[in-house]
Specification:
two-stranded antiparallel ribbon; cell membrane; Sugar ABC transporter permease; 3% strand; MetI-like_sf; MetI-like; mainly alpha; 2 strands; globular
């Protein structure tokens, strides 16, 4: 059937020979097929364990009474616990120090090895990257020897400089700083690689224009490098934050959360509560608290680094 204008009526059958592409060959279906393995992995390895932890945090398990629903009771008990509040305070202090330190050093080294012509830059860059190839547990053992109170490399160097020996990992005032030094030694080279790639993507014409304008190296960094490095820097800052909030192996190997709880980070406290005390309900509640803290910190970072498009 045709309309007055000679065009096929709406809903009429397609002309003979007209090919209609199957639904599964559409762009959305192809994209979904490529994304399906990642979506399955995300569901099984992230979303499902997260939902399980959230559900378990609302229950209490006892050998005598079995599992019982307690609602927000585990959370209330946690915040009433002095050890948990101390772990939160230590974690926030640790995050406040280690993230700016690692990112700042990574930025400085990335600029030094790309924009400033340094003798032996490739060799020094390789030495900075080398700790990435070392497992964290092995790095922790190495640094336990360096920080040994008696006969350790750090105190030997202090003795040469005429300074008294320090406790490092055995001192409540120095243990957290020692862990931060170890983690920075591991992480700086890794984050530096992303920033070097970002700097290499900055158009050379911008640096040439800054040089013609007589801009100093500091002005060039603030006006050219830093604004153009915003996206890689945002990724590095967020990734470093998440990575440092999940630190576990160095604390377990070197300090066990001590001395006097000075290195009792939330991730280690979760492990201790779940496997040393057998309190799975409160441990899962602590996991939820750690996830919330991470999301809040990351959201603040995205807010601060959000670029004006």
């Amino acid at each position: 059937m045709r309309t007055g204008g000679g065009e096929p009526a709406v809903g009429s059958r397609p002309r003979p020979g007209h090919y209609r592409r199957p639904w599964w060959r559409g762009t959305a279906a192809v994209a979904l097929a490529f994304l399906l393995p990642s979506l399955v992995a995300l569901t099984l390895l992230r979303l499902l364990p997260g939902a399980t932890a959230l559900w378990g945090s609302l229950h209490h398990t006892s050998l005598l009474s079995g599992e019982s629903f307690v609602g927000l009771g585990n959370y209330l008990d946690l915040f009433a616990n002095a050890d948990f509040r101390g772990a939160v305070a230590v974690t926030l202090l640790f995050t406040l120090v280690v993230n700016p330190l690692q990112v700042g050093i990574s930025v400085a080294l990335a600029v030094l090895y790309t924009r400033r012509r340094m003798a032996g830059a490739k060799v020094w860059r390789a030495l900075v990257i080398l700790p990435i190839a070392t497992p964290p547990a092995v790095s922790a053992v190495v640094w336990s020897v360096i920080f040994r109170p008696e006969g350790g490399l750090a105190n030997s160097l202090l003795a040469v400089a005429g300074l008294p020996p320090q406790g490092f990992l055995t001192s409540p005032d120095q243990a957290l700083a020692s862990i931060i030094v170890l983690l920075s030694w591991i992480g700086v080279g890794y984050w530096m690689l992303f920033l070097i790639a970002g700097i290499n993507d900055i158009p050379a014409e911008l640096y040439e224009a800054a040089e013609l304008d007589g801009a100093s190296p500091a002005r060039t960094f603030l006006s050219v490098t830093l604004p153009m490095l915003r996206r890689p820097l945002s990724f590095v800052l967020v990734a470093a934050t998440v990575s440092n909030l999940l630190v576990f192996a160095p604390v377990q190997i070197l300090t066990g959360g001590g001395p006097e709880g000075s290195t009792n980070l939330l991730m280690y406290d979760i492990y201790s509560r779940a496997y040393a005390l057998g309190d799975m309900g409160r441990a899962q509640a602590e996991v939820v608290v750690l996830v919330v803290i991470t999301l809040v910190i990351v959201a603040v970072q995205f807010r601060m680094l959000r670029s004006e498009d």
